[in-house]
Amino acid sequence: MTNRCQAQYLRIFDEATTYTRWQSYYIGQTVTWQAASWSYHPFNADGLIGGTSGSDVGVSIDVPATSVAVQAFTDALSNNYLCQLLIYEFNSLRQQSGPPASQLLIGSYVGEVTGINGSFSLLQVQLGSSLAPVGAQTPPRKYTNYLVGAPIRL
Amino acid sequence: MNIKFNDPLSLLPYQTGLLATPLTEAAARGQTSLDSKQKAVVLGEPIPIVFCRRLSNVGGVFVSPSATEGRFSNNSTTNELTVRLQLVLSEGDLPQLQLRDVFQRACRVGTWKQSYDSRTESWLPGNFITSVAGKKFWNCPYYCGTGGTYDNLTTLSYLNTHADGDETWDKQVHCFVRQGMQVTRILDDTFGPSNNFVDLALYLIRQSSRFPEAMLDLVAMESAALFVNANGFFYNGLFDQSNNLEDWLQDTSRNFLLRVSDRNGKKAFKPRLPVNEDGTIKTTAVSWVFTFTEDHILPDGFEIDYIPLSERKPICAQMLWRQQPDDDIGIIRVIQVRVTGEAEDGPFEQFDLSQFCASENHAVKVGAYEVARRKYVTHSLRLRIKPDAYNSTLALGDIVRVQLRRETEVNDVSLHDFLYEVERINKTISGIVELDLIHFPINAQGQSILAVLVNNASGTGVLLPTGRANFECDDEDRREDPTPLPEDPQPPPEPPSPPDGREDLPDDQDPAPPGADTPNPTDPITPTPPEICGATGGNNQPIPGDEMEVCEELCEGMYNEWYLCPGSSNDINANCTKVSQGVAAKYINANNSKGYRVFVRGRCPDPGSPDGYGPPNDSIGTPPIGGDDGKDWGDTADPPNGTPTQFVFDRYASHIEFTSITGPVVYIKRGTFVYNNQTFRGQIRLRYTSTSGTLVDIHTGVGDYIDVGTIGNDPKPWACEIKLANGQPWPFLP
């Protein structure tokens, strides 16, 4: 007998610090997984986790616009924090009290918060890459007075 | 509710770069004009990146550096011109050029030095030309440059002399760069020149500062680097045109048979062909990781899109590349690639790889891919499948088999049975997985047809002569002289102030919410509620007998409906009684209206409405109608201690002194009022607090009053005030 379930975990972090660890499956609970505590916060995530660059690869997260969520994601957007989404699959008939050790990682996505929109009560957070689809970016350096002064005019 | 859109399946081959017909065709971009005028740097233009590594006589790039400074002087007797130029060769640190590889026009002439991260040589820029009698005047530039820091740039100093009348003094100088900008190569983790496209891409991605390192899939990047290295797809080019990085990665990676992919949010390159562990193209039978059948696909979960005819017609791919001999300036080459017997007379599609491709085999293999995919890759699929074992195993780039039975009549069963490459994976919260797949054609031996064709394609190996037989303009023995250019770095000039022409905004602004609120402007369209005037009591309290009217009619001919509502009511619709109505109607408070609140509902004329008036506009209620209600206003706070000295009935300009009252509290309660010549009876109640704390009212009964005389027919309210011992007025209500 199988009851296939997905549990989603979300982490907001940068190189030095993890700011937020949320899970959306165990309601009202803080669970321990991978030696870290994940507090409950309702959210749904889905999207294209793999594809060719330039297509609509990215993940969208729907989250209630609580003050905590607004603060967390706007901070992530302002400070270029990374978000990691982990999707695990397991048989919920075996265990519901906490993450089972046998759960399988079926999706993983790391991205920046590239956009936030929604309503006063619901936020939709887009995770993706900030490698902008428009605008000239390479070669990265341009001639400046600092580098070459006022150049010769031939 | 969320509405999500998927890109149409028909776009998939374009988004993956499978279909990329050139939009424009032009002269080879790798061609260099030799006898042109020397270029000068223009502020704002991109600093070129020379990225190459010549190995086994393949590679290198011919560069025409721009000048930043010049010094021009002549001999006052012979008029011989001495030209010095400061040139920027590339961003980054380049190994020393060889003497045989520096030119002016097509000739190896002049004296050269090379430095990194600084200016080369110490000469001062300027125009020092003097007029020499009987000689031609050198018309050299007057704006000769000022110099800069040359931070992280490779610079050259060039010196040459020109006899009187020599018109080549301002011709372009060139360099053949065998070893380009040094980076840490991903394959051997060594700092040095590279010809690996993945190294260049990583450098650009990191330099763009727009992409966190954590979002780079370096394992996949290394596999891609191994693929291009093993198959001889090398980048030997000058990168100096401003581009969007994402576009450039997509467009250029295609010419290395790579595709840019996002896998789990991480960016990487992925070979377009199956590969062996050593990076070579896999030409053995391919295996697949999963077979999808009817058991896995959800209802309406199968979508197919065939590649259109325009992208299937056979073509002749005309590949441009650059033949680069060891001792001469390179030439552009063209090789045509087609399927045997097809497109003999076209159509031709030109693919210009001459900017970076210095290998015929590289060009031929890319051409073979372009031709073969047109012929053999026929369609793409989109499957919606239920979750299963593949949930945790299926990955981008995996080969899968789709095998579906098609039964259109009895005993007529056919199969949709093909291999596909997974191009996109879309996972949803419901568990449903959506896969975008591209046809992966195989032959009877199970080999990838594209892999076999590309792997077997090779160039002719023929090297064309450059067409140059005369090297007499070269300085003697220069053509074979591999001596590295000497270094002569110079300290940077005095830094200008501010040091690098920058303006750093202070980071001391903390966003904060707006402060005190300001009232919003009144909407001029929405009418304000009618206001009620006519109250004569204190604090604008109406009392019986007051004639209530609308202060300012909202419109001409406004129809007023007057209501009496309970004193606790704030709503004209709650237990109210209509007491008066009519155009510009007023209402006189009845004697029995004490304690009620007065509301008015105004309606403006509206010929279009059934009763001729528009929607109602309700006032807010007045305070409860006042007057003596016979009740103790016990909720009025006690006045401060003190000895009252007088009462003033200000409506009558008279007063009564109560000199005998010494208690701490004196209350003046409501007065009575009268109509129609009846005697006005002022009523005063006295209250004090006994020593036991009990409130004692000295008077509460009718008849115990003070007669203040007779007034006229006009009923008047009255009000009182008490003056305390300190002389400050303390008004009482009403």
Care to give the gist of this entry?
Chain A has helices at residues 67-79, 145-148; strands at 4-13, 18-23, 31-33, 36-40, 44-52, 58-64, 82-91, 104-118, 122-128.
Word description of this protein:
The complex is a heterodimer of chains A (154) and B (734). Chain A has 154 residues and is mainly β. Chain A has two helices and nine strands; from the N terminus they run E-E-E-E-E-E-H-E-E-E-H. Chain A has helices spanning 67-79, 145-148, and strands at residues 4-13, 18-23, 31-33, 36-40, 44-52, 58-64, 82-91, 104-118, 122-128. In chain A, strands 3-4-2-1-7-8-9-6-5 form a nine-stranded mixed beta sheet. In chain A, strand 8 (104-118) and strand 9 (122-128) form a beta hairpin. The radius of gyration of chain A is 20 Å and the shape is elongated. Chain A starts with a strand and ends in a 6-residue tail after the last helix. The model of chain A has no long low-confidence stretch (mean pLDDT 85). With 734 residues, chain B is mainly beta. In chain B, 9% of the residues lie in helices and 29% in strands. Chain B contains six helices and 40 strands. In chain B, the strands form 13 sheets. Chain B has a six-stranded mixed beta sheet with strand order 16-22-23-24-21-17, with no helix packed on it. Chain B has a five-stranded mixed beta sheet with strand order 6-9-4-3-8, with no helix packed on it. In chain B, helix 5 (360-376) runs antiparallel to helix 6 (449-456). Chain B is flat and about 125 Å long. In chain B, 38% of the residues are buried. Mean pLDDT of chain B is 81; it is low at 1-5, 628-690 and 696-734. At the A-B interface, strand 1, strand 5, strand 6, strand 7 and strand 8 of A face strand 3, helix 2, helix 4, strand 14 and strand 23 of B. Strand 5 of chain A pairs antiparallel with strand 14 (258-263) of chain B.
